[in-house]
TrEMBL record:
This is Class A beta-lactamase-related serine hydrolase. Residues 8-315 form the Beta-lactamase-related domain. Pfam families: Beta-lactamase. It comes from Nonomuraea longispora. Keywords: Hydrolase. GO terms for molecular function: hydrolase activity. InterPro entries: Beta-lactam-related, Beta-lactam/transpept-like, Diverse_Enzym_Activities.
Amino acid sequence: MTAGRILARAHDKGEFSGAAWAYGTSAGPVGRDMLGTLSRDGAPVGDDTLWDLASVTKPIVGLAVMALVESGELTLDDTAASQLPGYAGTDKAGITVFELLTHTSRIPGRQPLYRRCPTRESLLDALIGLPLRERPGVEYSSQGFMILGLVAESAAGVPLDQLVRERVTAPLGLDETRFLLPEHDRARAAATEDCPWRGRVVQGTVHDENAEVLGGVAGHAGMFGTLDDLARLGQALCRGGDGVVAPRTLAVMTGTRIGGRALAWKGHEPRLGSGGDLLTPAAYGHDGFTGTSLWVDPELDFYAVLLTNRVHPSRASNGIGRIRRTFHNAAVTRTLP
């Protein structure tokens, strides 16, 4: 079954209102298409549709962090307190950039801080006060990436959105990939959840509630992008980070593996991994809660972008896991000779 047919069937089952996808090699796309609408009964998905990337923000921010490492503005062993004076004397003072990137910081994840923190300042204070896990290990932590974004801002001396633009999106010509959509662009964004907390369908503003309280710019979520921009990023990664970081830097970033985690990326898991069954152990990628993903396999010279709004109008369905795996299996077999 083709990738398009897989996604058309998922659309017909109501898994999302719209989808866009591309896959190929460093030379360019082999397959590319889109289907559906921006919302239930909304306008058709188009080339200019903006997708809430959710946690695919993390590796993009991670690339900016690695660019700072390359330039000497950060090292992987720098601590939170070395960049953030407010962390001095806390249990997080000695947490390193490396630990934040690999989700080994012991900072607990999946914390709905927005429920008790209505302002950016109160949420940032709550981050400092989160008790660390007692035992070391890998725990996926958006909260750790919130702190990583603050560390990167301090090291660069510019706001996070400006840093990502200067170090990642502008060099690659990703002109549509950014935080904080202007109001006039929000109508071309794919809708996400009919959100009980907000009392409305979210469209053109960040779906992640913690990111919204932080102002829409955060290390863990908040970026929007188009299909062609994400495909361009996939091609650049297939070329060894061309335009963003040096090949050696990208090799360290993606080749480091601790409990299935690379630096800001997931390593490929052959069983039940979102990259499917056919990628090599060298593959890396990331998923977004809204239904987005980017996977790259440098050994196969392969990338795949899948963009959906699977949380529209509700996050209740868990069908996206199998959809991602079958999509990537079909994309790999149609890309390789």
